[in-house]
Amino acid sequence: MHVLTWNLFHGRAVPEIKHSLLDEFTDMISSWPWDVALLQEVPPWWPEPLARAASAEQRTVLTSRNALLPVRRFIAERRPDLVKSNGGGANAILVRGAGIAEHRTRRLRVRPERRFAHAVRLGDGTWIANVHAQANPKPLARADMTQAGETVARWAGDAPALLGGDANVADPAVAGFNDIGGHGIDRFFVRGGLRAGVAPRTLRSDGLSDHAPVIVEVRTS
After folding, report:
1. Into how many domains does the chain fold?
2. Which residues constitute the domain of residue 124?
3. 185 alpha-carbon distance from chain centroid
4. CA–CA gap between residue 166 and residue 133 (Å, rounded)
């Protein structure tokens, strides 16, 4: 199974492009050979078209800055960098092929920003979880990763589980999980007999986002 993680930077590019980049992100994500995609900082109106283009199911949890979302969306679709993260936020899990048997969410914090861990149970019983930890201060990021790991371990029980996403620290630790690497703060952790079949690698994104997309192959031991 191939798992992708990518922080979409609220649908923005580096350098700035002054229009909605939904089509560009959609084309990129749908072209890659993943089975599950873990996405963070997703404009809340994007998960459905992203999943549809990628022939995938999706589950979403709203995160921070979503009050008056129609107003935020109106601006973000015209000048993404004018509102930046104030365009609204969500985390999304996209699944191809295997199907989603269950979806669970847990709020990790309200302040300084709403953060969630969420996970899907696939048809074969494997749990795949997505997290975007608090950026600053760093002790909060570590606390979010700890709580996310404890939550996913409880949900999964003895079943195989993977936790991935944006840890917002370069040296995160998740008790009970093995760190199988990633790129910078974008990482993967596994338990319950999962292991990396091939080391994580970054994909070309042509300036979309300020994070590199990272993909890993995981196998059952």
Report:
1. 1
2. 2-220
3. 12
4. 6
d(CA 72, CA 102): 31
CATH number of the structural domain spanning residue 94: 3.60.10.10
Tokens of 66: 């979503």
Kindly state the helix (H) or strand (E) to which residue 91 belongs, with its residue range: strand 90-95
Alpha carbon 216 to chain centroid distance? 14
Partnered with residue 194 across adjacent β-strands are 220
Query: How confident is the model at residue 193, as a pLDDT?
Result: 95
- pTM of the prediction? 0.95
Over the range 72-111, which residues count as b (16 or more CB within 10 Å of their CB) and which as e?
bbeebbeebbebebebbbbbbbbbbebebeebbebebeee
Q: How far apart are the first and last CA of the chain?
A: 13
pLDDT at 81 over 80: no
Rounded Cα distance between 15 and 17, Å, is: 7
Instruction: Indicate the residue type of 88.
Output: G
